[in-house]
């Protein structure tokens, strides 16, 4: 990855190479930490804007609340720090990664004696897969690894612990010659990709698994459902058996990193005509118009980098 200049570390901007943690950092051993992935886009007028900053910061607080991780800053401070670090690095387009973790004190499993540390880093990150994948679609497989079961590690929290499972899914897919893996939940129903939510289109109706099927409550998922409904599509959140993938007209992934990426085959079975379908393409187009400021920002989703941070909704604030 390309280094940026500065990282926000517990309230200070430090040089990229100086943003170090101790090997006794509690989260490094036991995996209790929460993070976000946010994109900043260069808009058509040359200004930069962060997409749904408020919702990402709120989700960070929600994840931390589930894991009893008291973030020692207000949501406004974290939002302002995200803007500050983008500006400090003078990046027009970037990916923003806040992380909150338990630092160095003791190594009993109990994390509570350890300090809660926070870092925010930004770097340039283009297409998650390839540029071609955005148009041509991905070849993916159903993973032999299931998503975390309910009452194990909470799927709705964006916690680092969940990404051990995500990495198993991803590594297996790569080893087997696929771009990505799709996980089922422990009951065998469709859940999500290693780091993306999934949608299927059948007879013009758009479906996605509900949060009860061990999925992250994705912000792109919410954006896509909103956009699709505004475009006149019926969108259903419903439990989907695995085989819906094989008989779907279209399947696509969504997420901050992957944006909207079509899937052209699952387990070597062609999806629809084996290339990006018209519904996926229409939603993709609309999504990119919105994030790049080419369509009116009717929902207030764009936070200009050179304007003050909007107040967060307060749903999870201050916990
Ligand atoms: N599911 C998982 C497991 C993820 O890691 C991500 C990426 N954050 C998503 C879904 C998509 O979420 P979002 O659209 O909020 O980035």
Strand-helix topology:
Layout lengths: L5 E4 L2 E4 L10 H5 L2 E3 L2 E5 L5 E4 L1 H14 L8 H15 L4 E9 L13 E8 L7 H6 L1 E5 L19 H14 L4 E5 L5 E4 L3 E6 L2 E4 L10 H12 L4 E3 L6 H4 L2 E6 L3 E8 L2 E2 L7 H14 L10 E3 L15
Parallel strand pairs: 8-9, 8-15, 12-13
Antiparallel strand pairs: 1-2, 1-7, 3-6, 4-5, 4-6, 5-17, 6-7, 9-10, 11-12, 11-14, 14-15, 15-16
Helix pairs in contact: 2-3
The site of 4'-deoxy-4'-aminopyridoxal-5'-phosphate has 13 residues, from helix 6.
Could you write a compact summary of the structure shown?
The protein has helices at residues 26-30, 53-66, 75-89, 131-136, 162-175, 219-230, 244-247, 278-291; strands spanning 6-9, 12-15, 33-35, 38-42, 48-51, 94-102, 116-123, 138-142, 180-184, 190-193, 197-202, 205-208, 235-237, 250-255, 259-266, 269-270, 302-304.
Written overview of the protein:
The chain has 319 residues and is of the alpha+beta class. The protein has two domains: 6-126 and 298-304, 2-Layer Sandwich (D-amino Acid Aminotransferase, Chain A, domain 1); 131-276, D-amino Acid Aminotransferase, Chain A, domain 2. The chain has helices at residues 26-30, 53-66, 75-89, 131-136, 162-175, 219-230, 244-247, 278-291, and strands spanning 6-9, 12-15, 33-35, 38-42, 48-51, 94-102, 116-123, 138-142, 180-184, 190-193, 197-202, 205-208, 235-237, 250-255, 259-266, 269-270, 302-304. Strand 15 and strand 16 (269-270) form a beta hairpin. Helix 2 (53-66) crosses helix 3 (75-89). The two termini are 34 Å apart. The protein binds 4'-deoxy-4'-aminopyridoxal-5'-phosphate. Residues 37, 166, 192, 195-197, 216, 218-221, 255-256 line the site of 4'-deoxy-4'-aminopyridoxal-5'-phosphate. 4'-deoxy-4'-aminopyridoxal-5'-phosphate binds next to helix 6.
């Amino acid at each position: 990855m390309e280094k940026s200049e500065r990282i926000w570390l517990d309230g200070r901007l430090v040089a990229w190479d100086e943003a170090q943690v101790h090997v006794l950092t509690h989260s490094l051993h036991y995996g209790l930490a929460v993070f976000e992935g946010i994109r900043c886009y260069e808009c058509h007028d040359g200004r930069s804007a962060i997409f749904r900053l408020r919702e990402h910061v709120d989700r960070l607080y929600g994840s931390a609340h589930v894991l009893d991780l008291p973030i020692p800053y207000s949501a406004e401070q974290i939002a302002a720090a995200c803007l500050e670090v983008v500006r400090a690095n003078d990046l027009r387009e970037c990916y923003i990664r806040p992380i909150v973790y338990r630092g160095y004190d003791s190594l009993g499993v109990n994390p509570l004696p350890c300090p809660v540390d926070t870092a925010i880093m930004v770097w340039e990150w283009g297409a998650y897969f390839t540029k071609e994948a955005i148009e041509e679609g991905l070849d993916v497989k159903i993973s032999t690894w299931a998503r975390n079961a309910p009452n194990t590690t909470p799927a709705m929290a964006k916690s680092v612990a969940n990404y051990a499972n995500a990495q198993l899914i991803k590594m297996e897919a790569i080893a087997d010659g696929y771009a990505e893996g799709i996980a089922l939940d422990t009951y065998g129903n469709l859940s999500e990709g290693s780091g993306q939510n999934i949608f299927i289109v059948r007879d013009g109706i758009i479906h996605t698994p509900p949060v009860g099927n061990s999925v992250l409550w994705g912000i792109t998922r919410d954006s896509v459902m909103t956009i699709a409904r505004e475009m006149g599509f019926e969108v259903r959140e419903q439990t989907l058996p695995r085989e819906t993938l094989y008989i779907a007209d279209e399947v696509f992934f969504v997420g901050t990193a992957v944006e909207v990426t079509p899937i052209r085959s699952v387990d070597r079975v062609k999806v629809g005509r084996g290339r990006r379908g018209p519904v996926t393409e229409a939603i993709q187009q609309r999504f990119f118009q919105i994030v790049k400021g080419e369509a009116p920002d009717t929902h207030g989703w764009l936070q200009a980098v050179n304007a003050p941070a909007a107040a967060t909704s307060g749903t999870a604030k201050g916990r």
